[in-house]
Write a structure and sequence with these properties.
With 188 residues, the protein is an alpha+beta fold. The chain has helices spanning 13-24, 29-32, 70-89, 98-106, 122-129, 157-161; strands at 34-38, 46-49, 54-58, 134-137, 144-147, 155-156, 169-172, 186-187.
Protein backbone atom coordinates (compact mmCIF):
# COMPACT_ATOMS: atom_id res chain seq x y z
CA UNK A 1 0.00 0.00 0.00
CA UNK A 2 1.33 3.43 -0.94
CA UNK A 3 1.82 5.90 1.89
CA UNK A 4 0.47 9.42 1.59
CA UNK A 5 3.01 11.81 0.12
CA UNK A 6 3.16 15.46 1.21
CA UNK A 7 3.35 17.65 -1.89
CA UNK A 8 4.79 21.09 -2.37
CA UNK A 9 2.04 23.53 -1.38
CA UNK A 10 2.27 25.22 -4.79
CA UNK A 11 2.04 21.97 -6.79
CA UNK A 12 -1.29 21.42 -8.54
CA UNK A 13 -1.01 18.62 -11.10
CA UNK A 14 -4.57 19.05 -12.40
CA UNK A 15 -4.01 22.75 -13.15
CA UNK A 16 -0.70 22.00 -14.88
CA UNK A 17 -2.26 19.20 -16.94
CA UNK A 18 -5.15 21.53 -17.88
CA UNK A 19 -2.71 24.21 -19.06
CA UNK A 20 -0.56 21.76 -21.02
CA UNK A 21 -3.65 20.09 -22.52
CA UNK A 22 -4.83 23.45 -23.85
CA UNK A 23 -1.35 24.35 -25.10
CA UNK A 24 -0.91 20.98 -26.85
CA UNK A 25 -4.55 20.83 -28.06
CA UNK A 26 -5.31 17.61 -26.17
CA UNK A 27 -8.80 17.97 -24.76
CA UNK A 28 -9.47 16.48 -21.33
CA UNK A 29 -5.83 15.75 -20.49
CA UNK A 30 -6.34 16.84 -16.86
CA UNK A 31 -9.35 14.56 -16.34
CA UNK A 32 -8.00 11.49 -18.15
CA UNK A 33 -4.54 11.34 -16.56
CA UNK A 34 -3.96 9.97 -13.08
CA UNK A 35 -0.79 10.99 -11.25
CA UNK A 36 0.62 8.63 -8.62
CA UNK A 37 3.64 9.03 -6.36
CA UNK A 38 5.73 5.99 -5.56
CA UNK A 39 8.27 5.54 -2.79
CA UNK A 40 9.56 2.45 -4.65
CA UNK A 41 10.97 4.48 -7.55
CA UNK A 42 14.58 4.98 -6.60
CA UNK A 43 16.55 5.33 -9.81
CA UNK A 44 14.09 6.87 -12.26
CA UNK A 45 12.20 10.10 -11.81
CA UNK A 46 8.99 9.18 -13.56
CA UNK A 47 7.21 6.54 -15.57
CA UNK A 48 4.34 6.91 -18.00
CA UNK A 49 1.75 4.42 -19.19
CA UNK A 50 0.23 6.43 -22.06
CA UNK A 51 -2.41 3.91 -23.08
CA UNK A 52 -4.23 4.10 -19.74
CA UNK A 53 -3.10 7.64 -18.86
CA UNK A 54 -1.17 6.75 -15.71
CA UNK A 55 1.85 8.75 -14.64
CA UNK A 56 3.97 7.50 -11.76
CA UNK A 57 6.48 9.88 -10.19
CA UNK A 58 9.20 9.23 -7.60
CA UNK A 59 7.92 10.38 -4.21
CA UNK A 60 11.22 12.01 -3.27
CA UNK A 61 10.51 14.68 -5.90
CA UNK A 62 7.83 16.01 -3.55
CA UNK A 63 10.37 16.83 -0.86
CA UNK A 64 11.26 20.47 -0.50
CA UNK A 65 14.69 20.92 -2.08
CA UNK A 66 14.56 24.69 -2.44
CA UNK A 67 13.58 24.64 -6.12
CA UNK A 68 9.87 25.41 -5.56
CA UNK A 69 8.93 22.14 -7.21
CA UNK A 70 10.62 22.98 -10.54
CA UNK A 71 12.04 19.48 -11.01
CA UNK A 72 8.74 17.88 -10.03
CA UNK A 73 6.92 20.09 -12.54
CA UNK A 74 9.41 19.27 -15.29
CA UNK A 75 9.11 15.53 -14.66
CA UNK A 76 5.32 15.75 -14.72
CA UNK A 77 5.49 17.67 -18.01
CA UNK A 78 7.90 15.08 -19.45
CA UNK A 79 5.51 12.25 -18.63
CA UNK A 80 2.36 14.19 -19.61
CA UNK A 81 3.94 14.88 -23.01
CA UNK A 82 4.18 11.11 -23.52
CA UNK A 83 0.43 10.80 -22.90
CA UNK A 84 -0.27 13.74 -25.24
CA UNK A 85 1.90 12.29 -28.02
CA UNK A 86 0.10 8.96 -27.69
CA UNK A 87 -3.29 10.68 -27.93
CA UNK A 88 -2.26 12.89 -30.85
CA UNK A 89 -0.21 10.43 -32.94
CA UNK A 90 -0.88 6.92 -31.65
CA UNK A 91 1.70 4.35 -30.66
CA UNK A 92 3.74 4.45 -33.88
CA UNK A 93 5.96 7.39 -32.84
CA UNK A 94 9.22 7.20 -30.88
CA UNK A 95 8.87 7.95 -27.14
CA UNK A 96 11.38 10.84 -27.23
CA UNK A 97 10.98 11.67 -30.89
CA UNK A 98 10.37 15.03 -32.58
CA UNK A 99 6.67 15.15 -31.62
CA UNK A 100 7.49 14.74 -27.93
CA UNK A 101 10.35 17.27 -28.15
CA UNK A 102 8.03 19.81 -29.77
CA UNK A 103 5.51 19.50 -26.91
CA UNK A 104 8.22 19.87 -24.28
CA UNK A 105 9.58 23.02 -25.92
CA UNK A 106 6.08 24.44 -26.27
CA UNK A 107 5.64 23.97 -22.50
CA UNK A 108 8.91 25.84 -21.86
CA UNK A 109 11.17 22.91 -21.01
CA UNK A 110 14.30 21.57 -22.62
CA UNK A 111 13.39 18.13 -24.01
CA UNK A 112 15.81 15.95 -22.09
CA UNK A 113 15.70 12.27 -21.28
CA UNK A 114 18.39 12.27 -18.59
CA UNK A 115 18.79 14.87 -15.89
CA UNK A 116 22.25 16.14 -14.93
CA UNK A 117 23.65 14.54 -11.79
CA UNK A 118 24.13 17.92 -10.13
CA UNK A 119 20.37 18.51 -9.84
CA UNK A 120 19.64 15.09 -8.34
CA UNK A 121 19.83 14.47 -4.60
CA UNK A 122 22.82 12.51 -3.30
CA UNK A 123 20.53 9.70 -2.08
CA UNK A 124 19.35 9.03 -5.64
CA UNK A 125 22.88 9.08 -7.04
CA UNK A 126 24.00 6.59 -4.36
CA UNK A 127 21.13 4.22 -5.22
CA UNK A 128 22.03 4.41 -8.91
CA UNK A 129 25.66 3.54 -8.18
CA UNK A 130 24.67 0.54 -6.07
CA UNK A 131 23.22 -1.39 -8.99
CA UNK A 132 24.64 -4.86 -9.01
CA UNK A 133 26.69 -6.08 -11.99
CA UNK A 134 27.48 -9.70 -12.80
CA UNK A 135 30.51 -11.06 -14.65
CA UNK A 136 29.90 -14.15 -16.78
CA UNK A 137 33.20 -15.79 -17.72
CA UNK A 138 34.10 -18.90 -19.68
CA UNK A 139 36.31 -21.24 -17.63
CA UNK A 140 37.78 -22.71 -20.83
CA UNK A 141 38.74 -19.73 -23.02
CA UNK A 142 38.54 -17.00 -20.33
CA UNK A 143 36.25 -14.66 -22.32
CA UNK A 144 33.98 -12.64 -20.04
CA UNK A 145 30.84 -10.54 -20.33
CA UNK A 146 29.11 -8.24 -17.85
CA UNK A 147 25.38 -7.78 -17.35
CA UNK A 148 23.05 -6.10 -14.87
CA UNK A 149 21.48 -9.45 -13.96
CA UNK A 150 22.41 -13.10 -13.91
CA UNK A 151 22.03 -14.64 -17.36
CA UNK A 152 22.03 -18.40 -16.70
CA UNK A 153 21.14 -19.27 -20.29
CA UNK A 154 24.17 -17.52 -21.78
CA UNK A 155 26.86 -19.73 -23.28
CA UNK A 156 30.30 -18.93 -24.67
CA UNK A 157 29.80 -18.77 -28.43
CA UNK A 158 33.42 -19.68 -29.24
CA UNK A 159 33.31 -22.81 -27.07
CA UNK A 160 29.86 -23.87 -28.32
CA UNK A 161 31.07 -23.53 -31.92
CA UNK A 162 34.10 -25.69 -30.99
CA UNK A 163 31.75 -28.42 -29.72
CA UNK A 164 32.11 -27.70 -25.99
CA UNK A 165 29.31 -27.04 -23.51
CA UNK A 166 30.17 -23.34 -23.16
CA UNK A 167 28.87 -22.99 -19.60
CA UNK A 168 29.86 -19.76 -17.84
CA UNK A 169 31.09 -18.98 -14.33
CA UNK A 170 28.94 -16.23 -12.79
CA UNK A 171 30.22 -13.89 -10.09
CA UNK A 172 29.55 -10.40 -8.81
CA UNK A 173 31.37 -7.74 -10.77
CA UNK A 174 33.49 -5.55 -8.47
CA UNK A 175 32.00 -2.25 -9.67
CA UNK A 176 29.62 -0.99 -12.34
CA UNK A 177 31.33 0.27 -15.45
CA UNK A 178 29.58 3.20 -17.13
CA UNK A 179 28.70 2.59 -20.75
CA UNK A 180 29.53 -1.14 -20.60
CA UNK A 181 27.00 -3.30 -22.36
CA UNK A 182 26.58 -7.04 -22.49
CA UNK A 183 28.78 -8.42 -25.22
CA UNK A 184 27.20 -10.08 -28.26
CA UNK A 185 29.75 -12.93 -27.91
CA UNK A 186 27.53 -14.65 -25.38
CA UNK A 187 24.64 -16.65 -26.80
CA UNK A 188 21.28 -17.39 -25.13
Amino acid sequence: MQQAVKLHTSFDSAALLLDWGRLWKVAGLESSVSVEFSRRMSSSLGRCYPKDGTIRIAAWLCEDRGDDGALLTEVLCHEAAHVAVYRLYGKSVRPHGPQWKRLMRAAGFEPRVRFPAEILPQSVLQRRRRRQRWRHSCPVCEHSWTAGRVMRRWRCRSCVEAGREGGLRIERHPAPIHGEAASPQATP
